C-alpha cells in the first residue's frame, strides 16, 4: 500500500518509523517531513496546511491511506476533503475536530453531556469580560477560543494579569480570530494527567498511560512548551483511575459526539486534572500528543497500520492492541532560548554515537541537512531522544546517556524527565 503521513514533527517521525516497519506498507511519503523522516519516507515539499496541495498529491500518486498528524489540517477539514475524493484518512472530520478547534464548543458540549470540567463563562466583549473577572475569586484561567499553538492560556493570579490577558486577546487580537472569543474558567487544583484513546466512533480502545512534561524547566517550572519529554507507563493514571476516566469522560464524549452527528474517529487526547473529587477535563486534542507519541510507538507491539485502518472502517471492535512490558521515555532537545526566540541553522553532531545503544531511537522534529550532509536545527523542539528499559528508571538512564553523546552546543534539555514516576519507584 501507498501511505502518506502529513506533518513535520517528531510525532510524525515516530509515526513514519512505526508505519515503515509494517509489512503492508510498500511506499511511504511524508508532507513535508524533515531530515529524520527522510530516512523512513520520501519527503514531499507540501506544507501540512496546504490542503489542496495534499489532496492533489494523494490523487495523482494513488495514495491508499493518509495519516494526518497535526491539528490544524484536521480542524480545516483535510479528512473531509480526502474522503470526498475516496481516499481513506485517519483523523476526525472538521465537525468532530471542533473538540480541539474550539474551547467554547467543548465547554458547551461538556455541559450538555454532564462531563466533569471547570465552570466557565464565554466572552467576546472586553468590558463584560473585565466585569466578570472583577466579580470572581482568583485565580481564573483565561483561554483564547481557537487554535493558538499552545500559547492561548493564561492562569491569572491577579486582576491585573487577567486584564492584560483579556486586553491582549479581545482588543489587541494577538491570537487573531482565534482570540475573538475567550473562555474564562475556574482554576482546578490537582495533578495533571493525559489520556489517549483510539476510536472508530463507537468502539473505544484506551492506550497505555503516558505523560508529558509541559514546563520548560526542571521540577516542572517556567513557561509552558509543546512538551519537553514524556514517559510511559505513567503511574498517575492507574487502572482504577483509567476506568473512571473512560466511564466519566471519554465514553460520554464519543457517545455524545455520535448523537450530535459529529461521529469522532481517530485518536482522542484528553488533558485532565486529577482533583480531590476525581478526574476533570482540561481540554481535548484530536491527534496524538508530541512527544507522547514517541514513547507510545516504542511500547506498541501490534502493527500500527491495521489499527489505524480499523479506526477509519468502524472495525476497532475486532482489534486487540498489544503492548510491550518495557517502559519508554523521551527527552526533548530544544534550541537554546525555546519557548522564546532562538537561533536556527545551528550544527548538531553525535547522532550516530547516541544511536550506538540499540535501545535508543532518535526522532527528529525540526532538522534539515545542508549541502555537506551536516545536520542543522531548524526550530524550537528539535530532537526526541527516546529509550526503552525494564522500568522508567532504566529508560531514563539510557535516554540521558544518549543525550550526553549528542554534540549540540546550541541546544538544551530538561535533566529530570520522568521524575515523578522515578520518585514513585524509589518510594516503593
Ligand atoms: P490547555 O491549553 O487548555 O491545556 O491549558 C494549558 C495548561 O493550562 C494546562 O496544561 C494546565 O496546566 C493549565 N490549565 C488550563 N485550564 C486550567 C484550569 N481550569 N485549572 C487549572 N489549570 C488549568
Ligand atoms: N504534548 C502536548 C501536546 O501534544 O499537545
Structural key phrases:
single chain, 428 residues, alpha+beta, Rossmann fold, Dna Ligase, domain 1, D-amino Acid Aminotransferase, Chain A, domain 1, 4 domains, 6-stranded antiparallel β-sheet, 5-stranded parallel β-sheet, 32% helix, binds adenosine monophosphate, binds glycine
Residues in helix, %: 25-40%
Specify the number of helices.
Answer: 14
List the ions, cofactors and other small molecules found in this model: adenosine monophosphate, glycine
Strand content: 25-35%
In the CATH scheme, the class of the largest domain would be Alpha Beta
Low-pLDDT segments: none
- Rg over alpha carbons: 21 Å
The general outline is globular
> CATH superfamily membership of the largest domain, which one?
ATP-grasp fold, B domain
What number is the mean pLDDT? 95
Distance between the termini: 47 Å
CATH fold-level label of the largest domain: D-amino Acid Aminotransferase, Chain A, domain 1
Number of strands: 22
Structural class: alpha+beta
The main β sheet shows up as:
6 strands, antiparallel
What is the total domain count?
4
Plain-language structure description:
Helix content is about 30%, strand content about 30%. The radius of gyration is 21 Å and the shape is globular. Strands 12, 13, 16, 18, 21 and 22 form a six-stranded antiparallel β-sheet that branches. A five-stranded parallel β-sheet has the order 3-2-1-4-5, with helices on both faces. It folds into four domains: about 1-95, Rossmann fold (3-Layer(aba) Sandwich); about 125-180, ATP-grasp fold, A domain (Dna Ligase, domain 1), CATH 3.30.1490.20; about 190-320, D-amino Acid Aminotransferase, Chain A, domain 1 (2-Layer Sandwich); about 325-425, Glycinamide Ribonucleotide Synthetase, Chain A, domain 4, CATH 3.90.600. It has 14 helices and 22 strands. α1 (about 10-20) runs parallel beside α10 and α7 packs antiparallel against α8. It is an alpha+beta fold and about 425 residues long. It starts with a strand and ends with a helix. Bound molecules: adenosine monophosphate (AMP) and glycine. The site of glycine (GLY) has 7 residues, from β13. Adenosine monophosphate binds near residues 118, 155, 271, 273 and 283.
Amino acid at each position: 500500500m501507498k501511505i502518506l503521513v502529513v506533518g513535520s514533527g517528531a510525532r510524525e517521525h515516530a509515526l513514519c518509523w512505526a508505519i515503515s516497519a509494517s509489512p503492508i506498507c510498500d511506499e511511504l511519503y511524508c508532507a513535508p517531513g524533515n531530515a529524520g523522516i527522510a530516512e523512513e519516507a520520501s519527503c514531499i515539499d507540501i506544507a501540512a496546511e496546504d490542503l489542496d496541495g495534499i489532496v492533489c498529491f494523494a490523487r495523482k500518486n494513488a495514495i491508499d491511506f493518509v495519516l494526518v498528524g497535526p491539528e490544524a489540517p484536521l480542524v480545516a477539514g483535510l479528512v473531509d476533503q480526502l474522503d470526498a475524493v475516496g481516499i481513506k484518512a485517519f483523523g476526525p472530520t472538521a465537525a468532530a475536530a471542533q473538540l480541539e478547534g474550539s474551547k467554547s464548543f467543548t465547554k458547551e458540549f461538556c455541559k450538555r453531556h454532564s462531563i466533569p470540567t471547570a465552570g466557565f463563562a464565554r466572552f467576546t466583549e472586553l468590558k463584560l469580560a473585565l466585569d466578570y473577572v472583577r466579580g470572581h475569586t482568583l485565580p481564573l484561567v483565561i483561554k483564547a477560543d481557537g487554535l493558538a499553538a499552545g500559547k492561548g492560556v493564561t492562569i491569572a493570579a491577579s486582576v491585573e494579569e487577567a486584564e492584560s490577558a483579556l486586553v491582549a486577546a479581545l482588543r489587541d487580537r494577538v491570537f487573531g480570530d482565534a482570540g475573538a472569543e475567550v473562555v474564562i474558567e475556574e482554576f482546578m487544583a490537582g495533578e495533571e494527567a493525559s489520556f489517549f484513546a483510539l476510536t472508530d466512533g463507537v468502539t473505544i480502545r484506551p492506550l497505555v498511560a503516558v505523560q508529558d512534561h509541559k514546563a520548560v524547566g526542571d521540577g516542572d517550572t517556567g513557561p509552558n512548551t509543546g512538551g519537553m519529554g514524556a514517559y510511559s507507563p505513567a503511574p498517575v493514571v492507574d487502572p482504577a483511575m483509567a476506568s473512571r476516566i473512560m466511564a466519566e469522560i471519554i465514553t460520554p464524549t464519543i457517545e455524545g459526539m455520535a448523537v450530535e452527528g459529529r461521529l469522532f474517529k481517530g485518536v482522542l487526547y484528553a488533558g485532565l486534572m486529577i482533583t480531590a473529587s476525581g478526574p476533570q477535563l482540561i481540554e481535548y486534542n484530536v491527534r496524538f500528543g508530541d512527544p507522547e507519541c514517541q514513547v507510545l510507538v516504542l511500547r506498541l507491539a501490534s502493527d500500527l497500520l491495521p489499527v489505524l485502518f480499523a479506526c477509519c472502517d468502524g472495525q476497532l471492535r475486532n482489534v486487540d492492541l498489544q503492548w510491550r512490558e518495557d517502559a519508554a521515555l523521551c527527552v526533548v532537545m530544544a534550541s537554546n532560548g525555546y519557548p522564546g526566540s532562538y537561533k536556527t541553522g545551528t550544527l548538531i553532531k553525535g547522532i550516530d554515537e547516541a544511536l550506538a545503544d540499540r535501545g535508543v531511537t532518535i526522532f527528529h522534529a525540526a532538522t534539515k541537512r545542508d549541502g555537506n550532509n551536516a545536520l542543522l536545527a531548524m526550530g524550537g523542539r528539535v530532537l526526541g531522544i527516546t529509550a526503552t528499559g525494564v522500568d522508567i528508571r532504566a529508560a531514563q538512564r539510557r535516554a540521558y546517556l544518549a543525550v550526553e553523546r549528542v554534540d549540540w552546543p546550541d541546544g538544551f534539555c530538561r535533566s529530570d524527565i520522568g521524575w515523578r514516576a522515578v520518585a514513585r519507584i524509589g518510594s516503593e
